[in-house]
Amino acid sequence: MSAFAVGESGFLLDGRPVRLLSGALHYFRVHEDQWGHRLAMLRAMGLNCVETYVPWNLHEPRPGVFRDVGAVGRFLDAVRGAGLWAIVRPGPYICAEWENGGLPVWLTGEPGTRARTCDERYLRHVRNWFQRLLPEIVPRQIDRGGPVVMVQVENEYGSYGSDTGHLEELAGVLRAEGVTAALCTSDGPEDHMLTGGSLPGVLATVNFGSHARVAFETLRRHRPGGPLMCMEFWCGWFDHWSGEHAVRDPAEATEALREILECGASVNLYMAHGGTSFGGWAGANRGGGELHEGPLEPDVTSYDYDAPVDEYGRPTEKFWRFREVLAAYRPGPLPDPPSRPAALAAPAGAELTGWAPPADVLEALGGPETAGPVPPTFEELGIARGLVRYTVDVPGPRRPYPLTVRGLRDLAVVYVDGERAGVLTEAEPRLEEPVAGPARVELWVESLGRVNYGPRLGEAKGVTGGVLHERQYLHGVRARGLDLDAFADGVDAVPFGPVPGDGAPGLYRGTVTVRGAGDARLELPGGTRGFVWINGFNLGRYWAVGPQRSLYVPGPVLREGANEVWLLELDGGTPDGPAPRLVPV
Fold first, then answer.
1. Where are the domains of the chain?
2. Whether 156 is catalytic
3. Is the bond leading into 239 cis (omega within 30 degrees of zero)?
4. Where in this chain does the record put each Glycoside hydrolase 35 catalytic domain (predicted)?
């Protein structure tokens, strides 16, 4: 057993000074069969520690219903097997460009509950979650022979709120449930963030991408003693749909890392390996500058992050440059990087043999239909990730008037009397052509990802304000939701028919035959927007607006011979259809 401690000027391991050279790798963004390879890549880069968040919403999809919480323990066992230490950041809020910042939608949608505060209803849910989660972490602390050296309290709380009593409550729960490892907080290197987000007696760390000396000077004004640590050194960045692919010059990033280390500080590379937001779990941000109140900016499925180890697990130029710098701070020679995982041997096109229109998919896999005077939100329908069909009647006879959706989040494909009438968004919520009555209006509303950072965290999805014809609210709205989790049990209940020749929206089913299974990319040259599953594994969202042009398919997902493909096209592709094909990486 070893003892890890926070000393007066640095970290101590069994009484000897030690520096944490850590890298972020999220177990939930990497296929479990590839954890070992990615951890070996971090070790080969010169790191001695790995950091991971824990997304609450992934593991507790409904109150009291838990899903594979044991993955946390299995990952920490893999970390120990790789010869690394671990920093665990269990939140409960994590940001991470992850749906709703990791908070369950049933929690943030609960009337009266105030997340990220001392609200007792919120804290009761947190306690219940931690009581289930922490048994995966506590036995794996370093003083019990495990890899966990540090546990973070909340995440960047100072950029959100000032309820430090909330942080004290969280720290108390962690200690009460057996966490003996060092506790820490992390915030931006600004006075108001460190004031609102740090706790007496708990190590304060800072997050930044450059100007390390200035950042640490700010930290020292708040904490004259204790170790210096950058908990998030942003060596890359993430992408938004319809935006540009973010890159950071490797030489410039390397010099920024060198400056951190020359300050005598510990560091956590964010990200060392980004991975992929499989399953439609990518979050979203709000633009509009520092207030984050502007247009929705959904995050892409790839979380490559321009990291030193790319989405496919390959070393980049940044990897080799970082390795050269980090080697000077590690005893002995660094291990060689592990061999690359096998890649798909040859391209393979999928044969789509069945199709079902959206209404039939909803009938087979959707939840119950509700009816009421106003449209229910996704949260009221229990829909975390997916879409909702709203149906409302325009009374008649009446002349054509504009039809507007107030509070639309996020995107709606609209049909009037069965004919497609347009696509509405939060920014453009009015149909181009007026609607006369009587008429039947259907709005297929899709969530593009919940906000993961800023004051709009926890905002509702769906039609949150109402449907207007001219200035009159249309009442008597029927609603039925289709959650992505409904596909977990398969699609055999869906009545498939022949594939149409016009690329119509709906659920496509088919197979792709593989020879030489391995890592691949799935290309969808004829698809517009939707989700893809291979052998029941949800690869995530695709969208023709870019910048992401293909989806990563981990080799362990594929098998020799026939592989089942499901493709939920939500907009309508080219006349030739989505035409998915696998290509080697």
1. 20-280+294-327, 348-353+489-584, 374-475
2. yes
3. no
4. 11-328
